[in-house]
Amino acid sequence: HHMANGNGVYPHAAKHGASFGRQLQQQSVPAWFATSSAARFSGAGGMGSPTATSTPRGTDQKLKAGMYGVVRSLLRVLERGVAGKAILDTCLDACSAMQNLREAMTTYRGRLMAESKESRRAQLMGVCLEYLERYCMLIALTSYLTWPRFDPAAPGHVTFQDWMDSRPELRSVLSRMLRRNPLSALELHIPAATLLHDSPAGHQGADDDADQAARSQAEARADIVIESRSGAVLGALTILKEDYFPGMKSSRLPQVLPGASNFRRTAGPPVYGVAMCTLDGIRNVLTAVAQQQEQAGGPKEVLWFNMREEPMVYINGLPFVLREQQWPMKNLQEYAGIDAERLERMEARLKQDVLLEAAHHNGRILVARESAAAPCSLTEQHHSGTGELVDMWEPISGPDAVQAPAEVYAALAAEGLGVRYLRVPVTDGKAPSAGDIDAIMRQVG
Q1: Is pLDDT at 31 greater than 60 in this prediction?
Q2: Which residues in 326-344 are b (16+ Cβ under 10 Å) and which e?
Q3: With contact defined as beta carbons under 8 Å apart, do 146 and 87 qualify?
Q4: Start-end of H helices in 117-167
């Protein structure tokens, strides 16, 4: 409450021209603050030069302490950033009966990592970013309030808005690190190993500052690759995100087929459902369905309806979907209502974009995947995911390594697997339209 309305931060009866530091030294402060570790940064314990507090080790402990990358960058550019954060944290801890903003960020981040539904993940990410931006602005505000020239009663008093405007580097940190790459701001983005190792600052190690510098440089190198994209579909600021990821597996369903998450059959007619599959997963599904139908004397041909509404492509047998770099967990909304023919033409162009970019990068393409760990190649065994986004270079050995979905199923049919592929784009999170149902029924009938 004290932070919200200003009471207790500076006295109403402040003498004209007196510095905030001297005012704070002269007034009474709450016992919880006077005995806190932040008191040495404030007037309650003298306005000496702030010294860095010990940084918690381990990612979880650092994040619980609010030491996100954007916060660390902010502390470096603020004259009294360390002091401001220490005072703010003490206030947050003392006013945490309902919620502690710093701890809420970690809580929502954990929920984001555990969530599998993409629309819900986008909502949780929005909450995380809003809280993190609020935390950063409060650090800046507290640094402003402890600024030696802070004096509301003085002629020509500098407002917080003017103070921020005179420091464009603060806005730059928030804009560059919070809004441009939200996953990186939430410590959920891991640069490609080769980019990280090639960074001048070195590689990950015991030195937190060197580690952060290396990661920042690696992210900058990845940004250059992504910004320079010039394909017809894979354009600037778009990425290819793996569409087969650990978090897609439902805990309510038995996972019975490798590469085909959530495979299940409805009661009654032979109607099956499955999440996006790998190439091997598609084969596993077709084999399992064929065996079941052979035993039951059912139809031999499988009608496979792909309801993805976004352009996608298969690389080395794994599905990838087009996403905006800024919102990699969010479905592209601009394709809502697109028809199958136009979508498949986009996918054909996307395939060509991938091949052209791979040729420019010595036979490899920068992609992103969700995983708890980052194997050396996407073709290695998948691990349980935590929602982290990992940049990876995926080798492209030749034109056959990249396929549009229609080409994948055509090749499987040519192998003798009884499958007929049909595209019926349906907007994620919405029920199929009457037209979608008619398109399905025309094929089934």
Answers
A1: no
A2: eebbbbbeebeeeeeeebb
A3: yes
A4: 118-145, 160-165
Separation of alpha carbons 84 and 41, rounded Å? 8
Cα 295 to its chain centre, rounded Å, is: 45
Residue position matching structure tokens 């496979």: 304
> pLDDT tens for residues 380-394?
443 333 467 888 899
**pLDDT, average across residues 191-218:** 58
Rounded (5°) CA angle 305-308-309: 125
Beta bridge partners of 324: 238
End-to-end C-alpha distance for the chain, whole angstroms = 66
Q: What percent of the chain has pLDDT over 90?
A: 37
420 pairs with which residues across the strands?
303
CA 93 to chain centre: 27
- Tokens found for residue 296: 């039951």
Check residue 45 and give its pLDDT: 40
Query: What's the token pair of residue 356?
Result: 């052209």
DSSP 19-80: -HHHHHHHS---HHHHTSGGGGGSTTS--PPP-PPPPPSSHHHHHHTT--HHHHHHHHHSTT
Report DSSP letters for 284-306, one per residue: HHHHHHHHHHHHHT--S-EEEEE
| pLDDT for 236 | 87
Interatomic CA distance for residues 398 and 400, integer angstroms: 5
Residue whose entry in the numeric block shows the structure tokens 């690696």 = 218
3-state secondary structure of 198: coil
What is the pLDDT confidence band of residue 37, given thresholds at 50, 70 and 90? Answer: low
Mean pLDDT (the chain) is: 79
Q: Considering Cα of 30, then 31, then 36, then 39, what sign does the dihedral take?
A: positive
The β-bridge partners of 365 are 394
For the ranges 13-22, 250-259, 313-322, 368-377, the one whose mean pLDDT is highest? 313-322
What is the rounded distance in angstroms from the CA atom of residue 1 to the CA atom of residue 438? 58
Q: Could you tell me what percentage of the chain is helix, strand and coil, using 3-state DSSP and rounding each to the nearest 5?
A: 45, 10, 45
What's residue 250's pLDDT?
Answer: 84
- In DSSP terms, 265 is beta-bridged to 272
The encoded tokens of residue 157 equal 């008093």
pLDDT tens figures, 145-155: 888 888 888 88
Distance CA 234, CA 317 (A): 19
Q: Residue 352 burial (CB < 10 Å; 0-12/13-18/19+)?
A: middle
Mean pLDDT of 187-215: 59
Q: Are strands 189-190 and 238-242 parallel, antiparallel or unpaired?
A: unpaired
Token pair of 382 as six digits:
């998948």
